[in-house]
User: Which sequence fits this backbone?
């Protein structure tokens, strides 16, 4: 699974956004990785890992031709379904252009903008009242996990 996920992240983060590959591929071993498949083709990826603060969602990437058609939301729902029972703070660092997407999916902005990997981000937190909820999985696509 690592190869398809890395290939998607290379397209989205390294090639499109110009993020250094060394930054893009850190913390790989400690993270739980996801791949979203459409017709047996990997089209999106994400991961999460535990940090001192809680559970950090990271590296959400959807191939360009599959954006803006609900694939990112399906991937996010699958990740939230898996991490919500942990009863820990769920958070992420969203690039500014992705903030509306995460707000539509229940995340709230926390604090001031900051720069990470040369891009402006906002910390966003999933509401604590939502942690531990059982999210529906009837619409979720096929995922491969570790």
Assistant:
């Amino acid at each position: 699974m690592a190869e398809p996920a890395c290939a998607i992240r290379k397209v989205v983060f390294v090639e499109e956004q110009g993020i250094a590959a060394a930054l893009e591929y850190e913390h790989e071993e400690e993270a739980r990785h996801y791949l979203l498949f459409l017709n047996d083709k990997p089209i999106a990826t994400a991961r999460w890992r535990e940090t001192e603060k809680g559970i950090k969602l990271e590296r959400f990437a959807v191939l360009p031709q599959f954006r803006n058609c609900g694939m990112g939301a399906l991937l996010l729902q699958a990740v939230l379904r898996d991490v919500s029972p942990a009863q820990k703070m769920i958070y992420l660092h969203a690039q500014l252009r992705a903030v509306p997407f995460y707000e539509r999916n229940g995340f709230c902005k926390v604090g001031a903008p900051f720069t990470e990997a040369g891009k402006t981000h906002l910390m966003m937190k999933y509401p604590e009242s939502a942690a531990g909820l059982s999210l529906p999985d009837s619409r979720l696509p096929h995922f491969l996990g570790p």
